[in-house]
Specification:
There is one protein chain. This protein has one domain: 3-Layer(aba) Sandwich (Aminopeptidase). It is 35% helix and 34% strand. It has helices spanning 14-24, 26-31, 34-43, 86-97, 112-120, 147-151; strands at 4-8, 47-52, 55-66, 69-77, 102-108, 124-129, 138-144. The structure holds coenzyme A (COA). Coenzyme A (COA) is lined by residues 24, 75-77, 82-88, 107, 111, 113-114, 116-117, 120.
């Protein structure tokens, strides 16, 4: 695998990240006000550009809003770079930089690539929440980092 790294997004990266999300699903992008979400994440220093050998291939939003634990809010990789292990490597980098003992995330039951990418790098299934998207339950995953103990 080539060299994968994360760079904290700046406001100059806004169009790039918004473009990745727009290309993923234009209807969701507009309905879920994703441009606002991405802008807020950049301004809060919670958005990271995913680089493969210095080429920008996607972005990830990571914060601590889920019960004060690390939380991967959103990850989008450009279509031509999916299924090559970049998602899994990104989760590993997020786990390394996380300041708490656990990283959580969730995905729809229909999103098998996301579930595969998570389990491949050691995330465990944490449970299901019904009622968010009709007929497509939300599956939660987590991984222990033990970073807080190590950093104290
Ligand atoms: C979900 C996502 C972040 C995963 O990243 P990735 O780089 O594709 O993940 P990986 O390559 O590490 O692992 C994906 C696994 O799913 C498999 N897969 C099956 N169908 C796939 C598809 N259509 N696209 C990508 N991967 C697919 C891959 O082969 C791989 O498993 P394997 O290594 O056993 O072969 C990425 O696919 C993506 O950006 N998807 C669109 C946005 C999205 O769904 N985001 C998550 C919202 S919760």
């Amino acid at each position: 695998m080539k060299n994968i790294s994360l760079r904290k997004a700046t406001i100059e990266d806004k169009a790039l990240a918004v473009g990745f999300d727009y290309n993923l699903d234009v209807v969701e992008h507009i309905e879920l006000k994703r441009e606002d979400k991405i802008t807020k994440a950049i301004l809060s220093e919670e958005c990271f550009i995913i680089l493969v050998d210095n080429r920008e291939v996607g972005f990830v939003i990571f914060d601590y809003r889920f019960f004060d634990q690390g939380w991967i809010e959103l990850i989008v990789i450009d279509a031509e770079y999916r299924g090559k292990g970049i998602g899994g490597n990104t989760f590993n980098l997020i786990c390394k930089q996380c300041k708490t003992n656990k990283v959580f995330t969730s995905t729809n039951s229909s999103n098998t690539p996301m579930q595969k990418a998570l389990t491949k790098v050691g995330f465990s299934f944490a449970g299901t929440i019904n009622g968010l998207d009709d007929g497509d339950p939300e599956l939660f995953y987590y991984k222990k980092t033990n970073n807080r103990e190590a950093k104290e």
